[in-house]
Amino acid sequence: MNFYSRKLIKPENLNARNTLFGGALLRWIDEEAGIYAMTKLDSKNVVTKYMSEINFVNSAEQGDVIEIGLGFNKIGRTSISFSCEVRNVFNKKTIIKIEDIVFVLVDENGKPKPHGKTLDNLNLSKA
């Protein structure tokens, strides 16, 4: 798992309990994973297809810094999938885990399109 970006938890990211709002966190995860999928498939034409069960493990509070980690799962004919872990930068406690996030390459009509990538030409070493 590689950790690519960090976020500072600000007042606008809090829920009624004054902890990190899950919707804000999911938006950040979807954006980060989407950008990663774009870089791997060499196209901006990717869409989120599926997100597996989301496991909230710990919360975060205002002033905490979190980091979003992604790990490659698999490549399909039109898709690519990742796992995700978000953790607190300072105490390393896991905040959320998602086993599978799937992105699909689409054509101009929004229909799945083969991307031509294989494990051999995916270049998993570049961000």
Please characterize this protein's 3D structure.
This protein has 127 residues and is α+β, with helices and mostly antiparallel strands. The chain has one domain: Roll (Thiol Ester Dehydrase, Chain A), CATH 3.10.129. Helices cover 16% and strands 39% of the residues. The protein has one helix at residues 22-41; strands spanning 2-8, 46-51, 54-56, 65-75, 79-88, 94-105. Strands 1, 2, 3, 4, 5 and 6 form a 6-stranded antiparallel beta sheet that branches. The termini are close together. The mean pLDDT is 94.
Task: Map the helices and strands.
Blueprint: E1 2-8, H1 22-41, E2 46-51, E3 54-56, E4 65-75, E5 79-88, E6 94-105
Antiparallel strand pairs: 1-4, 2-6, 3-6, 4-5, 5-6
Task: Offer a concise description of the structure.
By secondary structure, the chain is of the alpha+beta class. Helix content is 16%, strand content 39%.
User: What is CATH's topology name?
Assistant: Thiol Ester Dehydrase, Chain A
Shape: elongated
CATH class: Alpha Beta
| Straight-line N-to-C gap | 12 Å
Structural class: alpha+beta
Radius of gyration: 15 Å
